[in-house]
Amino acid sequence: MRLQHPPLGVYSPGSTAIHRANPGLKLLVLIAFIALSTILARTPLHALLACVLPALGLAWARIPPRLLWEQLWPPIPLLLALGAFRWWSSDLPTAATMVIIILAAIAAAVLFTLTTPLPRLMETIERGLAPLERWGVPVERLSMAVGLTLRLIPSVMTIAGDVLDARTARGAGWSLRAFGTPLLIRCIKKARALAQALQARGVGD
């Protein structure tokens, strides 16, 4: 049985400069970091160097080690499976580089979600997109969609880890179709549950 832990993407209150930074600026830094690290990292050493920035950020934000681990471990089974497949299809250095870069991106995303309250993020996005309202763009709904998407990405990683754990427990072999089908079904169920919860609260009326 899995240990109970805080859901991925929770906000960890704090008074550090990272907590106080503008959510829009943090989002731009996150996107730039993921893009540049993916493009520039060609070896495992490069990938390890890319991990330094999110590691420093997490230390600066004073994220409790236990909370950090609880946020990072759910995607690890999926990363190991992807790494093994990449090793089989290519070579070990390429697989290691891919796994480490993805882990660095996840760590950066965790830093962003742990230090950014969702309402403040949505408010910032809505304010930035406000000029588009004159062309009939539903800015409020769009900002909510972006905010919820950012929060749901870690949840999808958790679901993927659960699916892999279930297949391992049954002794099932690796199959992209056998893995992807239950993952897709569970993601759709979660999306429907979220939509029903939002509808019950009158969102979108």
TrEMBL record:
Protein name: Energy-coupling factor transporter transmembrane protein EcfT
Taxonomy, superkingdom: Bacteria
Topology versus the membrane: Multi-pass membrane protein
Record organism: Corynebacterium uropygiale
Pfam families found in the cross-reference section: CbiQ
Primary location class: membrane
Subcellular location: Membrane
Keyword Nuclease attributed: no
GO terms for cellular component: plasma membrane
Record field: transmembrane: 27-60, 95-114
